Protein backbone atom coordinates (compact mmCIF):
# COMPACT_ATOMS: atom_id res chain seq x y z
CA UNK A 1 0.00 0.00 0.00
CA UNK A 2 2.85 2.38 0.73
CA UNK A 3 4.47 1.56 -2.59
CA UNK A 4 1.17 2.21 -4.26
CA UNK A 5 1.18 5.71 -2.86
CA UNK A 6 4.65 6.39 -4.09
CA UNK A 7 4.19 5.08 -7.59
CA UNK A 8 0.69 6.17 -8.48
CA UNK A 9 -0.85 9.59 -8.94
CA UNK A 10 -3.31 10.65 -6.30
CA UNK A 11 -5.50 13.38 -7.77
CA UNK A 12 -8.56 12.40 -5.79
CA UNK A 13 -7.01 13.65 -2.57
CA UNK A 14 -6.58 17.19 -3.81
CA UNK A 15 -10.19 18.14 -3.18
CA UNK A 16 -10.29 16.63 0.26
CA UNK A 17 -7.11 18.44 1.16
CA UNK A 18 -8.37 21.91 0.32
CA UNK A 19 -11.74 21.25 1.93
CA UNK A 20 -10.03 20.33 5.15
CA UNK A 21 -8.14 23.59 5.10
CA UNK A 22 -11.35 25.57 4.77
CA UNK A 23 -13.41 23.63 7.27
CA UNK A 24 -11.06 24.00 10.18
CA UNK A 25 -9.98 27.49 9.31
CA UNK A 26 -6.31 26.71 8.73
CA UNK A 27 -4.32 29.50 7.28
CA UNK A 28 -2.63 29.15 3.95
CA UNK A 29 0.70 28.01 5.34
CA UNK A 30 0.04 24.32 5.43
CA UNK A 31 3.03 22.17 6.30
CA UNK A 32 2.37 19.56 3.61
CA UNK A 33 2.22 21.43 0.34
CA UNK A 34 3.11 18.31 -1.54
CA UNK A 35 -0.53 17.30 -1.84
CA UNK A 36 0.45 13.78 -1.06
CA UNK A 37 -2.16 11.64 0.55
CA UNK A 38 -2.06 13.26 3.94
CA UNK A 39 -5.31 11.63 4.87
CA UNK A 40 -4.50 8.33 3.34
CA UNK A 41 -4.08 6.46 6.58
CA UNK A 42 -6.39 3.91 7.98
CA UNK A 43 -8.13 5.19 11.07
CA UNK A 44 -10.42 2.79 12.79
CA UNK A 45 -13.72 4.60 12.89
CA UNK A 46 -15.01 5.08 9.39
CA UNK A 47 -18.64 4.44 10.22
CA UNK A 48 -18.46 6.27 13.50
CA UNK A 49 -17.65 9.55 11.81
CA UNK A 50 -20.68 9.17 9.56
CA UNK A 51 -22.93 9.93 12.47
CA UNK A 52 -24.21 13.41 13.15
CA UNK A 53 -21.67 15.61 14.92
CA UNK A 54 -24.15 16.67 17.59
CA UNK A 55 -24.49 13.16 18.92
CA UNK A 56 -20.83 12.68 19.68
CA UNK A 57 -19.93 16.21 20.63
CA UNK A 58 -17.14 16.57 18.12
CA UNK A 59 -16.57 18.66 15.04
CA UNK A 60 -16.94 16.63 11.89
CA UNK A 61 -13.74 17.14 9.89
CA UNK A 62 -14.42 16.51 6.20
CA UNK A 63 -17.42 15.48 4.11
CA UNK A 64 -15.66 12.70 2.30
CA UNK A 65 -13.11 11.87 4.96
CA UNK A 66 -14.95 8.68 5.76
CA UNK A 67 -14.55 7.59 2.16
CA UNK A 68 -10.84 8.18 2.38
CA UNK A 69 -10.57 6.31 5.62
CA UNK A 70 -12.37 3.27 4.37
CA UNK A 71 -10.47 3.22 1.09
CA UNK A 72 -7.27 2.40 2.79
CA UNK A 73 -8.65 -0.40 4.91
CA UNK A 74 -7.39 -3.81 4.02
CA UNK A 75 -10.71 -5.52 4.66
CA UNK A 76 -13.51 -3.13 3.73
CA UNK A 77 -16.03 -5.46 5.27
CA UNK A 78 -14.74 -4.46 8.66
CA UNK A 79 -15.96 -0.89 8.38
CA UNK A 80 -19.58 -1.82 7.59
CA UNK A 81 -20.55 -3.27 10.96
CA UNK A 82 -19.90 0.10 12.57
CA UNK A 83 -23.17 1.52 11.19
CA UNK A 84 -24.90 0.53 14.36
CA UNK A 85 -28.05 2.11 15.71
CA UNK A 86 -26.52 4.05 18.57
CA UNK A 87 -29.62 5.68 19.89
CA UNK A 88 -28.27 7.86 22.68
CA UNK A 89 -25.55 10.45 22.67
CA UNK A 90 -23.15 8.56 24.92
CA UNK A 91 -21.11 5.69 23.57
CA UNK A 92 -21.81 2.09 24.53
CA UNK A 93 -21.01 1.45 28.19
CA UNK A 94 -18.08 -0.89 28.40
CA UNK A 95 -18.19 -3.88 30.69
CA UNK A 96 -14.45 -3.80 31.29
CA UNK A 97 -11.99 -1.10 32.32
CA UNK A 98 -9.08 0.09 30.19
CA UNK A 99 -5.47 0.03 31.29
CA UNK A 100 -4.29 3.30 32.81
CA UNK A 101 -1.88 4.71 35.33
CA UNK A 102 1.80 5.25 34.84
CA UNK A 103 4.87 7.37 35.45
CA UNK A 104 6.84 8.56 32.44
CA UNK A 105 9.31 11.36 32.21
CA UNK A 106 11.67 12.94 29.72
CA UNK A 107 14.16 15.79 29.88
CA UNK A 108 16.84 17.43 27.76
CA UNK A 109 20.42 17.86 28.82
CA UNK A 110 23.73 18.48 27.14
CA UNK A 111 24.05 14.88 26.00
CA UNK A 112 20.67 14.70 24.26
CA UNK A 113 17.31 13.62 25.60
CA UNK A 114 16.67 11.09 28.33
CA UNK A 115 13.36 9.29 28.64
CA UNK A 116 12.37 6.99 31.48
CA UNK A 117 9.20 5.12 32.40
CA UNK A 118 7.91 2.45 34.73
CA UNK A 119 6.51 -0.80 33.36
CA UNK A 120 3.25 -1.42 35.16
CA UNK A 121 -0.05 -1.61 33.26
CA UNK A 122 -2.94 -1.57 35.65
CA UNK A 123 -6.60 -2.17 34.94
CA UNK A 124 -8.68 -0.71 37.79
CA UNK A 125 -6.95 -2.52 40.59
CA UNK A 126 -5.49 -5.48 38.78
CA UNK A 127 -2.00 -5.35 37.38
CA UNK A 128 -2.73 -6.42 33.85
CA UNK A 129 0.91 -6.52 32.88
CA UNK A 130 3.96 -6.00 35.09
CA UNK A 131 6.34 -5.83 32.16
CA UNK A 132 4.82 -3.58 29.57
CA UNK A 133 6.81 -1.25 27.37
CA UNK A 134 5.85 2.37 27.75
CA UNK A 135 8.65 3.88 25.73
CA UNK A 136 8.24 2.96 22.09
CA UNK A 137 10.86 3.74 19.50
CA UNK A 138 9.35 5.32 16.41
CA UNK A 139 12.43 5.57 14.26
CA UNK A 140 16.15 5.64 14.78
CA UNK A 141 16.19 9.16 16.19
CA UNK A 142 12.74 9.45 17.72
CA UNK A 143 11.28 7.80 20.74
CA UNK A 144 7.86 8.33 22.28
CA UNK A 145 6.79 7.77 25.86
CA UNK A 146 3.19 6.70 26.23
CA UNK A 147 0.63 7.35 28.90
CA UNK A 148 -3.11 6.77 28.88
CA UNK A 149 -4.85 3.77 27.41
CA UNK A 150 -2.14 1.33 26.30
CA UNK A 151 -4.01 0.13 23.22
CA UNK A 152 -4.52 3.69 21.99
CA UNK A 153 -0.90 4.58 22.58
CA UNK A 154 0.47 1.46 20.90
CA UNK A 155 -1.72 1.78 17.82
CA UNK A 156 -1.29 5.52 17.35
CA UNK A 157 2.46 5.17 17.72
CA UNK A 158 2.39 2.56 14.98
CA UNK A 159 0.35 4.83 12.75
CA UNK A 160 2.74 7.70 13.47
CA UNK A 161 5.74 5.50 12.66
CA UNK A 162 4.16 4.55 9.37
CA UNK A 163 3.40 8.14 8.44
CA UNK A 164 6.91 9.27 9.33
CA UNK A 165 8.39 6.51 7.24
CA UNK A 166 6.21 7.49 4.30
CA UNK A 167 7.28 11.10 4.74
CA UNK A 168 10.89 10.03 4.73
CA UNK A 169 10.43 8.04 1.54
CA UNK A 170 8.58 10.83 -0.21
CA UNK A 171 10.75 13.75 0.83
CA UNK A 172 14.11 12.13 1.25
CA UNK A 173 14.68 13.29 4.80
CA UNK A 174 13.31 12.66 8.24
CA UNK A 175 10.52 14.76 9.62
CA UNK A 176 11.57 16.85 12.61
CA UNK A 177 10.26 16.13 16.07
CA UNK A 178 8.11 19.23 15.94
CA UNK A 179 6.67 18.06 12.65
CA UNK A 180 6.01 14.62 14.04
CA UNK A 181 4.29 16.13 17.07
CA UNK A 182 2.14 18.29 14.85
CA UNK A 183 1.25 15.30 12.70
CA UNK A 184 0.26 13.24 15.71
CA UNK A 185 -1.78 16.09 17.12
CA UNK A 186 -3.65 16.55 13.85
CA UNK A 187 -4.29 12.83 13.54
CA UNK A 188 -5.78 12.72 17.02
CA UNK A 189 -7.87 15.82 16.53
CA UNK A 190 -10.95 14.09 15.00
CA UNK A 191 -11.20 12.03 18.16
CA UNK A 192 -11.31 14.96 20.53
CA UNK A 193 -14.21 14.51 22.90
CA UNK A 194 -14.23 10.74 22.64
CA UNK A 195 -12.73 8.47 25.22
CA UNK A 196 -9.48 8.09 23.36
CA UNK A 197 -6.66 8.86 25.77
CA UNK A 198 -3.12 9.35 24.53
CA UNK A 199 -0.57 11.53 26.33
CA UNK A 200 2.82 11.12 24.72
CA UNK A 201 6.11 12.94 24.88
CA UNK A 202 8.08 12.74 21.67
CA UNK A 203 11.82 12.83 22.30
CA UNK A 204 14.05 13.12 19.31
CA UNK A 205 17.20 14.38 17.80
CA UNK A 206 16.73 16.52 14.69
CA UNK A 207 19.21 17.28 11.99
CA UNK A 208 22.69 15.87 12.05
CA UNK A 209 22.23 14.88 8.40
CA UNK A 210 23.83 16.33 5.23
CA UNK A 211 21.70 19.46 5.43
CA UNK A 212 20.31 20.83 8.63
CA UNK A 213 17.31 22.49 7.00
CA UNK A 214 13.95 22.31 8.69
CA UNK A 215 10.59 21.77 7.09
CA UNK A 216 8.29 24.08 9.01
CA UNK A 217 9.35 27.13 7.06
CA UNK A 218 6.81 26.66 4.30
CA UNK A 219 6.36 25.64 0.72
CA UNK A 220 9.34 27.46 -0.67
CA UNK A 221 11.93 25.38 1.09
CA UNK A 222 10.41 22.18 -0.18
CA UNK A 223 10.34 23.20 -3.80
CA UNK A 224 13.88 24.35 -3.66
CA UNK A 225 14.99 21.18 -2.04
CA UNK A 226 13.27 19.14 -4.66
CA UNK A 227 14.84 21.07 -7.51
CA UNK A 228 18.39 21.51 -6.38
CA UNK A 229 19.62 19.32 -3.63
CA UNK A 230 23.21 20.31 -4.05
CA UNK A 231 22.55 24.00 -3.39
CA UNK A 232 24.38 25.74 -0.58
CA UNK A 233 22.45 26.36 2.59
CA UNK A 234 22.77 30.13 2.57
CA UNK A 235 20.53 31.29 -0.26
CA UNK A 236 17.57 29.03 0.46
CA UNK A 237 17.66 29.80 4.15
CA UNK A 238 17.80 33.53 3.47
CA UNK A 239 14.65 33.43 1.39
CA UNK A 240 13.04 31.18 3.88
CA UNK A 241 13.58 33.70 6.62
CA UNK A 242 11.82 36.25 4.44
CA UNK A 243 8.93 33.90 3.93
CA UNK A 244 8.61 33.51 7.66
CA UNK A 245 7.32 36.46 9.58
CA UNK A 246 10.02 36.20 12.19
CA UNK A 247 11.32 39.39 13.68
CA UNK A 248 14.69 37.98 14.64
CA UNK A 249 17.54 39.07 12.40
CA UNK A 250 19.39 35.83 12.89
CA UNK A 251 22.24 34.94 10.65
CA UNK A 252 22.04 32.02 8.27
CA UNK A 253 24.49 30.04 10.28
CA UNK A 254 22.51 30.39 13.45
CA UNK A 255 19.36 29.33 11.64
CA UNK A 256 20.76 26.11 10.31
CA UNK A 257 22.26 25.28 13.70
CA UNK A 258 19.35 26.19 15.94
CA UNK A 259 17.06 23.49 14.62
CA UNK A 260 19.53 20.70 14.92
CA UNK A 261 19.75 19.00 18.23
CA UNK A 262 17.56 17.49 20.87
CA UNK A 263 13.88 18.17 20.89
CA UNK A 264 11.15 17.32 23.37
CA UNK A 265 7.46 17.84 22.76
CA UNK A 266 4.40 16.76 24.73
CA UNK A 267 1.31 15.78 22.73
CA UNK A 268 -2.05 14.99 24.26
CA UNK A 269 -5.24 13.66 22.72
CA UNK A 270 -7.17 16.67 24.00
CA UNK A 271 -5.14 18.82 21.62
CA UNK A 272 -2.28 20.06 23.77
CA UNK A 273 1.08 20.34 22.08
CA UNK A 274 3.92 21.80 24.15
CA UNK A 275 7.62 22.09 23.52
CA UNK A 276 9.82 22.09 26.58
CA UNK A 277 12.89 20.80 28.33
CA UNK A 278 11.32 18.67 31.05
CA UNK A 279 8.09 16.72 31.11
CA UNK A 280 6.58 14.09 33.32
CA UNK A 281 3.25 12.47 32.50
CA UNK A 282 0.99 10.09 34.35
CA UNK A 283 -0.46 9.38 37.74
CA UNK A 284 3.01 9.29 39.31
CA UNK A 285 4.19 12.51 37.68
CA UNK A 286 3.89 14.83 40.73
CA UNK A 287 6.35 12.64 42.61
CA UNK A 288 8.68 12.46 39.63
CA UNK A 289 8.55 16.24 39.12
CA UNK A 290 9.79 16.88 42.64
CA UNK A 291 12.91 14.80 42.05
CA UNK A 292 13.49 16.17 38.57
CA UNK A 293 13.08 19.83 39.50
CA UNK A 294 15.77 19.40 42.08
CA UNK A 295 18.19 17.31 40.06
CA UNK A 296 17.99 18.22 36.39
CA UNK A 297 20.46 20.73 34.98
CA UNK A 298 21.76 21.22 31.49
CA UNK A 299 25.33 20.21 32.34
CA UNK A 300 24.66 16.69 33.61
CA UNK A 301 26.73 13.79 32.34
CA UNK A 302 24.95 10.74 30.98
CA UNK A 303 25.51 8.77 34.19
CA UNK A 304 24.19 11.58 36.36
CA UNK A 305 21.18 12.10 34.15
CA UNK A 306 20.39 8.38 34.15
CA UNK A 307 20.68 8.34 37.93
CA UNK A 308 18.28 11.26 38.30
CA UNK A 309 15.74 9.73 35.91
CA UNK A 310 15.92 6.39 37.63
CA UNK A 311 15.57 7.94 41.04
CA UNK A 312 12.54 9.92 39.93
CA UNK A 313 10.76 6.83 38.61
CA UNK A 314 11.73 4.87 41.70
CA UNK A 315 10.26 7.48 44.07
CA UNK A 316 7.13 7.73 41.97
CA UNK A 317 6.64 3.97 41.98
CA UNK A 318 7.06 3.96 45.73
CA UNK A 319 4.28 6.48 46.30
CA UNK A 320 1.93 5.90 43.40
CA UNK A 321 -0.07 2.68 43.46
CA UNK A 322 -0.51 2.56 39.71
CA UNK A 323 3.20 2.72 38.91
CA UNK A 324 5.68 0.05 39.73
CA UNK A 325 7.71 -2.97 38.79
CA UNK A 326 10.66 -2.03 36.59
CA UNK A 327 12.17 1.08 35.03
CA UNK A 328 13.18 1.58 31.41
CA UNK A 329 15.63 4.31 30.45
CA UNK A 330 16.24 5.44 26.89
CA UNK A 331 18.86 7.93 25.76
CA UNK A 332 18.56 9.78 22.46
CA UNK A 333 21.66 11.42 21.01
CA UNK A 334 22.86 12.38 17.57
CA UNK A 335 23.68 8.76 16.91
CA UNK A 336 20.16 7.57 17.65
CA UNK A 337 18.48 6.01 20.64
CA UNK A 338 20.08 3.55 23.05
CA UNK A 339 18.29 1.59 25.68
CA UNK A 340 19.55 0.80 29.12
CA UNK A 341 18.59 -2.71 30.17
CA UNK A 342 15.40 -2.91 32.16
CA UNK A 343 15.99 -2.74 35.88
CA UNK A 344 13.78 -4.33 38.47
CA UNK A 345 13.16 -1.83 41.24
CA UNK A 346 12.64 -4.54 43.82
CA UNK A 347 16.41 -4.64 44.45
CA UNK A 348 16.45 -0.90 44.93
CA UNK A 349 13.80 -1.10 47.62
CA UNK A 350 15.89 -3.61 49.55
CA UNK A 351 19.02 -1.49 49.17
CA UNK A 352 17.09 1.54 50.39
CA UNK A 353 15.81 -0.38 53.37
CA UNK A 354 19.32 -1.46 54.31
CA UNK A 355 20.56 2.10 54.00
CA UNK A 356 17.67 3.26 56.19
CA UNK A 357 18.50 0.71 58.85
CA UNK A 358 22.15 1.71 58.83
CA UNK A 359 21.22 5.37 59.23
CA UNK A 360 18.90 4.62 62.11
CA UNK A 361 21.56 2.55 63.80
CA UNK A 362 24.06 5.40 63.45
CA UNK A 363 21.56 7.84 64.92
CA UNK A 364 20.88 5.56 67.85
CA UNK A 365 24.60 5.20 68.53
CA UNK A 366 25.02 8.98 68.34
CA UNK A 367 22.19 9.55 70.83
CA UNK A 368 23.70 6.99 73.22
CA UNK A 369 27.07 8.72 73.07
CA UNK A 370 25.46 12.12 73.69
CA UNK A 371 23.59 10.82 76.75
CA UNK A 372 26.79 9.33 78.09
CA UNK A 373 28.60 12.67 77.72
CA UNK A 374 25.81 14.57 79.45
CA UNK A 375 25.76 12.25 82.40
CA UNK A 376 29.53 12.56 82.68
CA UNK A 377 29.36 16.33 82.75
CA UNK A 378 26.76 16.35 85.51
CA UNK B 1 -35.66 0.61 42.42
CA UNK B 2 -33.65 0.35 45.55
CA UNK B 3 -30.25 1.88 45.99
CA UNK B 4 -27.74 1.47 48.81
CA UNK B 5 -25.82 4.38 50.18
CA UNK B 6 -22.20 3.46 50.73
CA UNK B 7 -21.33 6.07 53.34
CA UNK B 8 -24.38 5.68 55.52
CA UNK B 9 -24.26 6.91 59.06
CA UNK B 10 -20.61 6.34 60.02
CA UNK B 11 -18.48 3.21 60.47
CA UNK B 12 -20.07 0.09 61.75
CA UNK B 13 -23.61 1.18 61.00
CA UNK B 14 -25.71 -0.70 58.47
CA UNK B 15 -26.21 0.79 55.06
CA UNK B 16 -29.44 2.68 54.48
CA UNK B 17 -31.63 1.29 51.76
CA UNK B 18 -34.15 3.68 50.36
CA UNK B 19 -36.14 4.25 47.26
CA UNK B 20 -34.46 6.77 44.95
CA UNK B 21 -36.94 6.72 42.13
CA UNK B 22 -37.31 4.73 38.93
CA UNK B 23 -33.96 3.57 37.53
CA UNK B 24 -33.57 3.12 33.81
CA UNK B 25 -31.70 0.09 32.62
CA UNK B 26 -30.14 0.56 29.23
CA UNK B 27 -29.96 -2.35 26.87
CA UNK B 28 -26.45 -3.65 27.05
CA UNK B 29 -25.17 -5.23 23.87
CA UNK B 30 -22.68 -7.25 25.87
CA UNK B 31 -23.08 -10.36 27.98
CA UNK B 32 -20.51 -12.16 30.00
CA UNK B 33 -20.24 -15.85 29.23
CA UNK B 34 -17.40 -16.73 31.53
CA UNK B 35 -14.59 -19.13 30.90
CA UNK B 36 -10.87 -19.10 31.46
CA UNK B 37 -8.06 -19.41 28.94
CA UNK B 38 -4.41 -20.04 29.59
CA UNK B 39 -1.33 -20.24 27.39
CA UNK B 40 2.25 -21.27 28.16
CA UNK B 41 5.24 -21.11 25.83
CA UNK B 42 8.19 -23.43 26.13
CA UNK B 43 11.43 -23.85 24.24
CA UNK B 44 9.89 -25.72 21.30
CA UNK B 45 6.23 -26.06 22.22
CA UNK B 46 3.25 -23.97 23.21
CA UNK B 47 0.19 -24.98 25.19
CA UNK B 48 -3.21 -23.30 24.97
CA UNK B 49 -5.82 -24.56 27.41
CA UNK B 50 -9.36 -23.52 28.20
CA UNK B 51 -12.29 -24.78 30.18
CA UNK B 52 -15.44 -25.74 28.31
CA UNK B 53 -18.22 -24.18 30.36
CA UNK B 54 -20.48 -21.60 28.74
CA UNK B 55 -22.50 -19.74 31.35
CA UNK B 56 -24.61 -16.62 31.63
CA UNK B 57 -25.64 -15.22 34.97
CA UNK B 58 -26.70 -18.15 37.12
CA UNK B 59 -27.26 -20.61 34.27
CA UNK B 60 -25.00 -22.88 32.31
CA UNK B 61 -25.74 -22.90 28.62
CA UNK B 62 -23.33 -25.65 27.70
CA UNK B 63 -20.77 -27.90 29.29
CA UNK B 64 -18.98 -28.60 26.03
CA UNK B 65 -18.04 -25.27 24.51
CA UNK B 66 -14.25 -25.11 24.29
CA UNK B 67 -12.64 -21.74 23.86
CA UNK B 68 -9.52 -22.71 21.94
CA UNK B 69 -9.71 -22.38 18.17
CA UNK B 70 -7.14 -23.72 15.78
CA UNK B 71 -6.02 -21.07 13.30
CA UNK B 72 -3.07 -22.60 11.45
CA UNK B 73 -0.87 -25.65 11.95
CA UNK B 74 1.29 -23.67 14.31
CA UNK B 75 -1.14 -21.31 16.02
CA UNK B 76 -4.06 -21.69 18.38
CA UNK B 77 -6.14 -18.84 19.80
CA UNK B 78 -8.07 -18.86 23.02
CA UNK B 79 -10.94 -16.38 23.36
CA UNK B 80 -13.06 -15.81 26.45
CA UNK B 81 -15.56 -13.16 27.37
CA UNK B 82 -18.67 -12.62 25.33
CA UNK B 83 -19.30 -15.71 23.25
CA UNK B 84 -21.00 -13.88 20.40
CA UNK B 85 -17.98 -11.67 19.87
CA UNK B 86 -15.65 -14.69 20.21
CA UNK B 87 -17.44 -16.47 17.35
CA UNK B 88 -17.49 -13.43 15.09
CA UNK B 89 -13.88 -12.59 15.82
CA UNK B 90 -12.68 -16.11 15.01
CA UNK B 91 -14.68 -16.03 11.77
CA UNK B 92 -13.05 -12.75 10.79
CA UNK B 93 -9.60 -14.07 11.65
CA UNK B 94 -10.20 -17.22 9.59
CA UNK B 95 -11.32 -15.15 6.63
CA UNK B 96 -8.27 -12.90 6.86
CA UNK B 97 -5.99 -15.93 7.11
CA UNK B 98 -7.50 -17.36 3.95
CA UNK B 99 -7.10 -14.05 2.15
CA UNK B 100 -3.48 -13.88 3.19
CA UNK B 101 -2.90 -17.48 2.09
CA UNK B 102 -4.41 -16.81 -1.30
CA UNK B 103 -2.54 -13.62 -1.97
CA UNK B 104 0.83 -14.52 -0.44
CA UNK B 105 0.89 -18.29 -0.95
CA UNK B 106 2.01 -19.01 2.58
CA UNK B 107 0.42 -19.26 6.03
CA UNK B 108 0.61 -16.40 8.45
CA UNK B 109 3.18 -16.68 11.23
CA UNK B 110 2.12 -16.34 14.85
CA UNK B 111 3.63 -12.88 15.14
CA UNK B 112 1.83 -11.71 12.04
CA UNK B 113 -1.48 -13.07 13.29
CA UNK B 114 -0.96 -11.23 16.55
CA UNK B 115 -0.26 -7.94 14.80
CA UNK B 116 -3.28 -8.42 12.55
CA UNK B 117 -5.54 -9.21 15.49
CA UNK B 118 -4.37 -6.04 17.20
CA UNK B 119 -5.53 -3.92 14.27
CA UNK B 120 -8.79 -5.86 13.95
CA UNK B 121 -9.57 -5.21 17.60
CA UNK B 122 -8.61 -1.55 17.42
CA UNK B 123 -10.82 -1.14 14.38
CA UNK B 124 -13.67 -1.38 16.83
CA UNK B 125 -12.14 0.98 19.39
CA UNK B 126 -15.43 2.68 20.20
CA UNK B 127 -17.58 -0.41 20.34
CA UNK B 128 -15.08 -3.09 21.23
CA UNK B 129 -15.18 -6.84 20.92
CA UNK B 130 -15.62 -7.97 24.49
CA UNK B 131 -13.10 -10.77 24.16
CA UNK B 132 -9.91 -11.52 26.03
CA UNK B 133 -7.63 -13.19 23.51
CA UNK B 134 -4.49 -15.19 23.99
CA UNK B 135 -2.61 -16.61 21.02
CA UNK B 136 -0.25 -19.52 21.52
CA UNK B 137 1.95 -21.02 18.88
CA UNK B 138 5.39 -21.43 17.41
CA UNK B 139 7.22 -18.50 15.92
CA UNK B 140 9.19 -18.72 12.69
CA UNK B 141 12.25 -20.03 14.56
CA UNK B 142 10.26 -22.87 16.08
CA UNK B 143 10.24 -21.46 19.60
CA UNK B 144 7.08 -21.22 21.64
CA UNK B 145 5.34 -17.85 21.64
CA UNK B 146 2.38 -16.49 23.57
CA UNK B 147 0.72 -13.18 22.69
CA UNK B 148 -1.83 -11.74 25.09
CA UNK B 149 -4.35 -9.05 24.19
CA UNK B 150 -6.70 -6.69 25.91
CA UNK B 151 -10.16 -6.11 24.41
CA UNK B 152 -9.07 -3.10 22.37
CA UNK B 153 -5.94 -4.51 20.81
CA UNK B 154 -2.98 -3.72 23.01
CA UNK B 155 -0.74 -6.78 22.95
CA UNK B 156 2.65 -8.10 23.79
CA UNK B 157 4.61 -11.29 23.71
CA UNK B 158 4.82 -13.25 26.95
CA UNK B 159 5.99 -16.62 28.19
CA UNK B 160 2.72 -17.40 29.93
CA UNK B 161 -0.62 -15.69 30.44
CA UNK B 162 -4.03 -16.42 31.87
CA UNK B 163 -7.15 -14.65 30.65
CA UNK B 164 -10.84 -14.75 31.39
CA UNK B 165 -12.86 -14.97 34.56
CA UNK B 166 -10.29 -16.78 36.74
CA UNK B 167 -7.29 -14.92 35.33
CA UNK B 168 -6.68 -12.93 38.51
CA UNK B 169 -6.40 -16.19 40.44
CA UNK B 170 -4.26 -18.08 37.95
CA UNK B 171 -1.80 -15.40 36.93
CA UNK B 172 -0.04 -15.11 40.31
CA UNK B 173 0.28 -18.88 40.45
CA UNK B 174 1.84 -18.96 36.99
CA UNK B 175 4.15 -16.08 37.95
CA UNK B 176 5.41 -18.18 40.79
CA UNK B 177 5.64 -21.59 39.15
CA UNK B 178 6.76 -20.70 35.64
CA UNK B 179 8.32 -17.28 36.14
CA UNK B 180 9.92 -18.19 39.47
CA UNK B 181 8.87 -14.82 40.79
CA UNK B 182 8.60 -13.89 44.44
CA UNK B 183 10.85 -16.72 45.49
CA UNK B 184 14.40 -16.28 46.69
CA UNK B 185 17.32 -18.55 45.94
CA UNK B 186 15.62 -20.95 43.54
CA UNK B 187 17.20 -22.76 40.66
CA UNK B 188 15.45 -21.80 37.45
CA UNK B 189 15.02 -24.96 35.42
CA UNK B 190 13.56 -24.67 31.94
CA UNK B 191 10.02 -25.96 31.58
CA UNK B 192 9.56 -29.33 29.90
CA UNK B 193 6.43 -30.16 27.96
CA UNK B 194 5.17 -32.83 30.34
CA UNK B 195 5.72 -30.65 33.38
CA UNK B 196 3.92 -27.81 31.67
CA UNK B 197 0.90 -29.98 30.83
CA UNK B 198 0.75 -31.25 34.41
CA UNK B 199 0.99 -27.72 35.72
CA UNK B 200 -1.84 -26.56 33.46
CA UNK B 201 -4.07 -29.37 34.68
CA UNK B 202 -3.35 -28.59 38.33
CA UNK B 203 -3.90 -24.91 37.80
CA UNK B 204 -7.28 -25.40 36.16
CA UNK B 205 -8.41 -27.80 38.87
CA UNK B 206 -7.64 -25.06 41.39
CA UNK B 207 -9.46 -22.48 39.31
CA UNK B 208 -12.56 -24.67 39.05
CA UNK B 209 -12.64 -24.91 42.84
CA UNK B 210 -12.78 -21.18 43.35
CA UNK B 211 -14.36 -19.65 40.26
CA UNK B 212 -17.98 -20.40 39.49
CA UNK B 213 -17.62 -19.70 35.78
CA UNK B 214 -14.83 -22.24 35.31
CA UNK B 215 -15.40 -25.97 35.30
CA UNK B 216 -16.93 -28.96 33.49
CA UNK B 217 -13.97 -29.97 31.37
CA UNK B 218 -10.56 -28.77 30.31
CA UNK B 219 -9.40 -28.78 26.71
CA UNK B 220 -5.64 -28.63 26.20
CA UNK B 221 -4.05 -27.97 22.78
CA UNK B 222 -0.35 -28.69 22.62
CA UNK B 223 1.41 -27.09 19.65
CA UNK B 224 4.69 -28.59 18.53
CA UNK B 225 6.38 -28.78 15.17
CA UNK B 226 4.75 -32.16 14.65
CA UNK B 227 1.34 -30.56 14.82
CA UNK B 228 -1.42 -29.81 17.29
CA UNK B 229 -2.35 -32.42 19.88
CA UNK B 230 -5.60 -32.12 21.83
CA UNK B 231 -6.48 -33.57 25.22
CA UNK B 232 -9.65 -33.35 27.27
CA UNK B 233 -9.61 -33.63 31.06
CA UNK B 234 -12.76 -33.59 33.21
CA UNK B 235 -13.18 -30.91 35.87
CA UNK B 236 -15.75 -30.22 38.56
CA UNK B 237 -19.26 -30.02 37.21
CA UNK B 238 -20.87 -28.10 40.06
Automatic annotation (TrEMBL), chain B:
InterPro entries reported for this sequence: Ntn_hydrolases_N (IPR029055), Proteasome_bsu_CS (IPR016050), Proteasome_sua/b (IPR001353), Proteasome_suB-type (IPR023333)
GO cellular component, one term: nucleus
Keyword vocabulary terms for this entry: Cytoplasm, Nucleus, Proteasome
One record GO biological process: cellular response to ethanol
Principal place of residence: cytoplasm
UniProt-annotated location(s): Cytoplasm; Nucleus
Task performed by this protein: Component of the proteasome, a multicatalytic proteinase complex which is characterized by its ability to cleave peptides with Arg, Phe, Tyr, Leu, and Glu adjacent to the leaving group at neutral or slightly basic pH. The proteasome has an ATP-dependent proteolytic activity.
Subunit and interaction comment: Component of the proteasome complex.
Family statement drawn from the similarity comment of this UniProt entry: Belongs to the peptidase T1B family.
Protein name per UniProt: Proteasome subunit beta
Native organism: Labrus bergylta (ballan wrasse)
Amino acid sequence: MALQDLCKCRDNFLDSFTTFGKKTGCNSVIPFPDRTSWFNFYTPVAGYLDESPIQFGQIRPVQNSSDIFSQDSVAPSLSSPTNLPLSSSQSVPLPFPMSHGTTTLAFMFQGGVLAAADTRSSCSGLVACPASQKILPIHSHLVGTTSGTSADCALWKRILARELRLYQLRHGRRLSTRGAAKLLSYMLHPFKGTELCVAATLCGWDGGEDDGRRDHVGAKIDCREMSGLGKPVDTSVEEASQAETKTSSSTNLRKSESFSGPSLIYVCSDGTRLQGTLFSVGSGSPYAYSILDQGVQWGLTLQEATAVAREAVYRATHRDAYSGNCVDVYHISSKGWTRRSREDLKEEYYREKRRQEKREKQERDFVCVKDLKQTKME
Amino acid sequence: MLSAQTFGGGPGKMKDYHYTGPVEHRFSPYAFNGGTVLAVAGEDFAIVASDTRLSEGYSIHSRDSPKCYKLTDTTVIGCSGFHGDCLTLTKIIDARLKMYKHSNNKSMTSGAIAAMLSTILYGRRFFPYYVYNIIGGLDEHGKGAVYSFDPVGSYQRDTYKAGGSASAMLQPLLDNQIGFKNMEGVEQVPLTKDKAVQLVKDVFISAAERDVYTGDALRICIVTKEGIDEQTVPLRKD
